[in-house]
Specification:
Chain B: One of its GO terms (molecular function) is ABC-type sulfate transporter activity. Chain B: Keywords: Membrane, Sulfate transport, Transmembrane, Transmembrane helix, Transport. Chain B: It is found in: Cell membrane. The complex is a heterodimer of chains A (about 375) and B (about 280). Chain A has about 375 residues and is of the alpha+beta class. Chain A folds into two domains: about 220 residues, Rossmann fold (3-Layer(aba) Sandwich); about 120 residues, Beta Barrel (OB fold (Dihydrolipoamide Acetyltransferase, E2P)). Chain A has eight helices and 20 strands. In chain A, strands 6-7-8-3-9-10 form a six-stranded mixed beta sheet, sandwiched between helices. A five-stranded antiparallel beta sheet of chain A has the order 13-12-11-14-20, with no helix packed on it. In chain A, α2 crosses α3 and α3 crosses α4. Chain A starts with a strand and ends in a 28-residue tail after the last strand. Chain B is mainly alpha-helical. Chain B has a single domain, classed as MetI-like (MetI-like fold, Orthogonal Bundle). The chains are: A alpha+beta (about 375), B mainly alpha (about 280). Chains A and B meet through β6 and α4 of A and α9 and α10 of B.
Chain lengths: ~375, ~280
């Protein structure tokens, strides 16, 4: 079922949890709501479920306004962060709960309910554990029981609140891959909340990055990582170096350094911040356009050589990541002077970060050169 | 050399929680001094009558009626509290309202109030010309000086036991359990009966047992409202006092021993029911 979220506002006391969220979710999508704690992602999820009521705005399921529908009639499968399994019921009773509480005219007969539950147990790979109680299961198993219980009601949408938050790293990784497979098998529209960018990028079809009650960017995993729409997204998804700069006559210069870059977008002239990821910096020859730094530390971790360097003109720290096979990465020593140049970067007007508008969800393939991208001139 | 490597002289296997011996010894001594020896005294004293003597005292119609009233009314009062106590606890846990702290403190008053004060207050309320009694009187309902009055006094003193045992369990039971039930399509009643009640059931049993035990032993608040008519509204503890005032110590202890035995059996039953309900769900 496709879901439209229209201008949702929600406050808790004086704290605005959601400030005008808009989102279109296509049927069968796997969507991640990603953001730091307090960004409103869980509130948005609970509002979709009907566990919270918006102060303003609409949520449409398949074009129908859900406002008059109580949570029990929305057919949402909700998986809670701490599973919320019924401790006094067996695994089987937990899974069949949603079917057993139906009115008798909609309720399948006993055998059908049992059969469906056993199928679901098989789907979540817990066959044979139907007589156990939740206390007798591991965290990962409980998680899967919670999922089977939510799927038992044939939900129109599956909502998961930090589904892997309470599990250890290994189990997390397995469950993540398994959830992706499950989604591909069942095709249920799925929305999950996470604060873990790796989880969001690995699992989701599209990622919704949220910050302080607003949606900062919606896009495919490569969109949000490679073409962040706002400084926040840049910062939240991976590390970033920020340089103050100035745009003048369609030329961009980094303040205090002898660098001139082209801006092929229509960026308004004035002060800007230039956002460059550590791996988007290149080491270049003396004489090329760039800025000079001194190497402070060299860390080699796996396939990456990480250089912590200091700008010569203002002593600011700049982080650089090079592939370990990059000729420029070999034999770098502490104290050495090198020249750096940004290969890919984002530009944002300075000191007005909060007012940066969320960009429309553009298809990156349709626009050859994203407007916030620049290339060295 | 160090003493650390000396082989232990331990007689018992090592445990992470040391001091089992001394702690058990202390517990048994304490329990004996405070509970077991005084209670044994009751049985020894009544044993002076012999089985026939005890039977003679206990089987007299007046004593039988008193025992029936004491245990019957206590059971009804505890059941009333088992219904309304959780409701009160639930309101305190789930909702915010002005004066919540005040009412929360009021719950404990029956614990602290001298029971005679409670008895006098209840009597003046429910007597035929009292605040509440005057409205019940025309309806033909007599509360004061009847077994109903006994039940009301017992309900009053039992309420905090149920509320205070159920409340923490409700607090611990995540709100998410209710939300999960709702997302699965359960209506309010199904959520309460199938999710919330089973969760608090063991605690509710504890509260029920405590309220029941307290009601059986209650004296001060009841004797004012009960009117103490033999065969009608006379409770067993009062009968014991009457026997004592007649210097019939053996008779008094015979009734006491009978009450003790019945109470002990009932509490044992409730406790095993509770253990059974706790063990369900593999909870430790």
């Amino acid at each position: 079922m496709d879901i439209q979220i229209r201008d949702i506002y929600k406050g808790f006391g004086s704290f605005p949890a959601l400030r005008g969220a808009n989102l279109d979710i296509r049927s069968g999508e796997l969507i991640a709501l990603l953001g730091p704690s307090g960004s409103g992602k869980t509130t948005l999820l609970r509002t979709i479920a009907g566990l919270e009521f918006p102060d303003a705005g609409q949520i449409l399921f398949g074009g129908v306004d859900t406002a008059p529908l109580p949570v029990s009639e929305r057919r949402v499968g909700f998986v809670f962060q701490h599973y919320a399994l019924f401790k006094h019921m067996t695994v089987l009773d937990n899974i069949t709960f949603g079917l057993r509480v139906r009115k008798s005219k909609n309720r399948p007969d006993k055998d059908a309910i049992r059969k469906r539950a056993l199928e679901l147990l098989d789907l979540v790979q817990l066959s044979g554990l139907e007589k156990r109680y939740p206390a007798q299961l591991s965290g990962g198993q409980r998680q899967r029981v919670a999922l089977a219980r939510a799927l038992a009601i044939e939900p129109s949408v599956l909502l998961l609140d930090e589904p892997f938050g309470a599990l250890d790293a290994k189990v997390r990784k397995d469950l993540r891959r398994w959830l992706r497979e499950l989604h591909d098998k069942t095709g249920v529209t799925t929305i999950f909340v996470t604060h873990d960018q790796e989880e969001a990028l690995e699992l989701a079809d599209r990622v919704v990055v949220m910050n302080r009650g607003s949606i900062e960017q919606v896009g495919s995993t490569s969109d949000v990582y490679e073409r962040p729409a706002t400084p926040f997204v840049f910062d939240f998804l991976g590390s970033v170096n920020v340089f103050p700069g100035t745009v003048k006559d369609r030329k961009l210069s980094i303040d205090g350094a002898n660098v001139t870059l082209d801006t092929d977008n229509d960026h308004a002239a004035g002060a800007v911040d230039i956002y460059v990821r550590p791996h988007d910096l290149r080491v270049v020859e003396e004489g090329s356009s760039g800025f000079d730094v001194t190497i402070k530390t060299v860390q080699r971790t796996g396939a990456i050589v990480r250089l912590i360097t200091q700008l010569k003109h203002n002593k600011e720290i700049v982080e650089v990541e090079l592939a370990h096979l990059d000729p420029q990465a070999i034999n770098r020593k502490v104290g050495e002077s090198i020249r750096l140049q940004p290969a890919i970067y984002g530009l944002f007007p300075r000191a007005s970060h909060d007012s940066v508008r969320t960009l429309p969800d553009v298809d990156p393939l349709a626009v050859p050169e994203h407007r916030e991208r620049g290339r060295l001139g | 050399m160090s003493t650390a490597s000396k082989p232990g002289r331990r007689k018992s296997p090592r445990s992470a929680i040391p001091g089992f011996g001394i702690n058990l010894g202390f517990t048994l001594t304490y329990l004996s001094l405070i509970v077991l020896i005084p209670l044994a005294g009751v049985f020894i004293k009544s044993a002076g009558l012999g089985w026939d003597g005890i039977w003679h005292v206990v089987s007299s119609p007046r004593v039988l009626a008193a025992l029936q009233l004491s245990f019957g009314a206590a059971l009804i009062a505890a059941l009333i509290n088992a219904v309304f106590g959780p409701l009160v606890a639930w309101v305190f846990v789930r909702y915010q309202f002005p004066g919540k702290r005040f009412f929360d403190a009021v719950i404990d008053l029956p614990f602290a109030l001298p029971t005679a004060v409670a008895g006098i207050a209840l009597t003046s309320l429910y007597s035929p010309n009292g605040w509440i009694g005057q409205f019940l009187e025309p309806l033909g309902i007599k509360v004061a000086f009847t077994p109903i009055g006994v039940i009301i006094a017992m309900t009053f003193i039992g309420l905090p036991f149920v509320v205070r045992t159920v409340q923490p369990v409700l607090e611990e039971a995540e709100k998410e359990l209710e939300e999960a039930a709702a997302t699965l399509g359960a209506n309010r009643w199904q959520t309460i009966s199938q999710v919330i009640l089973p969760t608090v059931f063991p605690a509710l049993l504890t509260g029920f047992a405590l309220a029941f035990a307290r009601a059986v032993g209650e004296y001060g608040s009841i004797i004012f409202i009960a009117g103490n008519l033999p065969m009608v509204s006379e409770i067993a503890p009062l009968l014991i006092i009457i026997k004592l005032e007649e210097f019939d110590y053996a008779g008094a202890t015979a009734i006491a021993a009978t009450m003790l035995t019945i109470s002990f059996v009932l509490l044992l039953l409730i406790n095993s029911l509770q253990a059974w309900s706790r063990n369900r769900g593999g909870r430790k």
